[in-house]
Amino acid sequence: MTFQGTDINGEFFDLAEHLGNKVILMSFWATWCEPCKTEMPFLQKLYESYEDKGLLVLSISQDGPDSVAGVAPYIHSCGYTFPVVVDEDSSITQAYNPKAVAPFTVFIDRHGQIVKTVEGFQLSEAEAIEAEVAQLLGE
């Protein structure tokens, strides 16, 4: 299962280019989702800690026509540096997150297989999520 889209900088993004060589943590979120905003600094920390070891943190915005204009300003104002793809037509969400839960995290191993999904986010789960990432990376 793969997709192509556009990130918040207008750049083309193709998931297939990353499958099979990186561990991917794909996080579905929206600007109107408070638990998502709680998760974002943690995702940035993971990205900074493990990017050079093969982790791709990929953020998928579920914002629709009424709120999509706020996605890029929000990401830039917070200083997040992981790629953020906007899923305006919900095709990515339908493929990976059919219940459209936010936040929703998909763990994809280096073989391109989905190995785990997590609905919601609480700071108390951060340590377990980081341990899962480290294990997938072979740390």
Tally of extended strands?
7
What about the largest sheet? 5 strands, mixed
**Helical residue percent?**
25-40%
List segments where confidence is low: pLDDT < 50 over at least 5 consecutive residues. Answer: none
Can you offer a commentary on this structure?
By secondary structure, this protein is α/β, with parallel strands linked by helices. The protein contains four helices and seven strands. The strands form two sheets. A five-stranded mixed sheet has the order 5-4-3-6-7. It has a two-stranded antiparallel ribbon with strand order 1-2. The longest helix has 17 residues.
Write the layout of secondary structure elements.
Blueprint: E1 4-6, E2 12-14, E3 23-29, H1 34-50, E4 55-61, H2 71-78, E5 84-86, H3 91-96, E6 104-108, E7 114-119, H4 126-137
Parallel strand pairs: 3-4, 4-5
Antiparallel strand pairs: 1-2, 3-6, 6-7
List keywords for this structure.
single chain; 139 residues; alpha/beta; 5-stranded mixed beta sheet; two-stranded antiparallel sheet; 4 helices
